Amino acid sequence: MRKRAICAAALLGVVIAASAGCSGDEPLTTPDGSPISTTVTRVAEVNIVSADRDYAKTCLAPTAADPGATDVTRIVVTDPTLLDALCALGIGDKAVAVTAAPGSVPAYLGPQLNAVPTIGTTPDAAAVSEADADLVLTTPQTTSSARPFGAVRAVTIPDGTWQEQFQAVADAVGRSEAGRARLAEFSTEARKTGRRMDASHTQVSLVRFGPDSETIAGTDTFAGQILAEIGVQRPAAQRVPDSFPVDSEDFRDAEGDLIYVSWEGEEGQKHAEKVLLSDEWLNLGASMWKRVLAVNDQIWYDSSGLAAAWLVLNDVKGSLDGNS
């Protein structure tokens, strides 16, 4: 890791709205019994966008099956990423099992889908029987997990753009029309948002922190694609498809009218806290003008579906013209 002059304030770490004390304590409450929020809203003097987001509201309203199509009722997915499409189609309640390890369902999909049983990549006969699936959705990389389900109809969702994969899932569950309508609705709203916020005149920088690294996110990343659909501009140095490491001591490649930062896990956050309070970072124009905001790395980069796309769009709606 490159050595930088770190402000003494870095020792303060994360700034928290309120703290519940020791992990074993009861939640803090007001005199009337109302819970006191313990949401972390700032890290290293940078506001977190949508810090109080309610993941129970991630999934969209239910869609109907295409006319004449037989509606599926019990769906198994062999890759947790496929759940995003079911969430965006409003049929998460039809998911009955995920052939993956516990804890592999993305948190942003909300409590309903996080409650779906994860039965391992090679489910046993009891788990297969309990699932009682009438459709198995799989990917080219996880087709082996569909084999224990025998004669149950299985559909492999091919590799492609996130829009193509969403539509493939919609086709597989008999919701082709709804899939096209939902994609069109998102594109329309993204363009409207861009015009309303004059996005074409804002250069947005995307920076991700790892345990000991800083990376500029390329235009081919999920977040980069959503920003492009909105019409947001990127700084000249960042108008490349692939992500690349920050190699300048003064972070000049990270400069922008607004900088969205994120971090990968706890170690990434620790590194981010140090960098965001360093002299080099604080000398950036965006930092001096309080135009640095933190976003959820899992949603902006690790995800790639319509439900996640709406969350990124809503983040931009609430922050593109705001201050840190």
Automatic annotation (TrEMBL):
<feature type="domain" description="Fe/B12 periplasmic-binding">
    <location>
        <begin position="74"/>
        <end position="324"/>
    </location>
</feature>
<feature type="signal peptide">
    <location>
        <begin position="1"/>
        <end position="20"/>
    </location>
</feature>
<comment type="similarity">
    <text>Belongs to the bacterial solute-binding protein 8 family.</text>
</comment>
<keyword id="KW-0732">Signal</keyword>
<dbReference type="InterPro" id="IPR002491">
    <property type="entry name" value="ABC_transptr_periplasmic_BD"/>
</dbReference>
<dbReference type="Pfam" id="PF01497">
    <property type="entry name" value="Peripla_BP_2"/>
</dbReference>
<protein>
    <submittedName>
        <fullName>ABC transporter substrate-binding protein</fullName>
    </submittedName>
</protein>
<dbReference type="InterPro" id="IPR051313">
    <property type="entry name" value="Bact_iron-sidero_bind"/>
</dbReference>
<keyword id="KW-0813">Transport</keyword>
